[in-house]
Amino acid sequence: MMAESIKTVDEKDEKILEMLQREGRASNVDLARALELTPSATLERVRKLEERGLIQGYMALLDPQALGLGLVAFIFVRVDDRDDILGRAESTAEALAALPSVQELHHLAGEDCFLIKVRARDTDDLYRILRDDIGKFKAIRGTRTTIVLKTVKETSRLAVGKKTGGE
Hints:
The chain has helices spanning 11-22, 28-35, 39-51, 82-85, 91-97, 123-134, and strands at residues 71-79, 102-107, 114-120, 140-147. By secondary structure, it is of the alpha+beta class. A four-stranded antiparallel sheet has the order 2-3-1-4.
């Protein structure tokens, strides 16, 4: 389902979205208190945001370091398949996205076709991912890999109702 335009979201909806992004386990009562609404009115707003596709789901955020996945790498991928390059066929993209180590996959404009974000245990694990997982694709012409030394900011939160550009 395609999400409705943010223009149809009022200040109370924005506050719900901001609070749930910060704390996905916030109770309906906590949301209601913050919004100065009744719990039933708050629950109805949350349900409508879910139905409209503005809230796509809830999940636990895991610590990659604690799970032994401390290495982050971005891999630029070029493919030979003209249909993939033009965005008409998604076979390579879908297969790459299905790899367990791939956290993000973006179709690009420019020299490269895809940008992939992967997490690995260490450089040996990254080598295995490049060789065994990504290397098995016949359509891939080449890759360029950048290893992250330190992450300063990483978030999935969106700036709801805030201007993001300079005016």
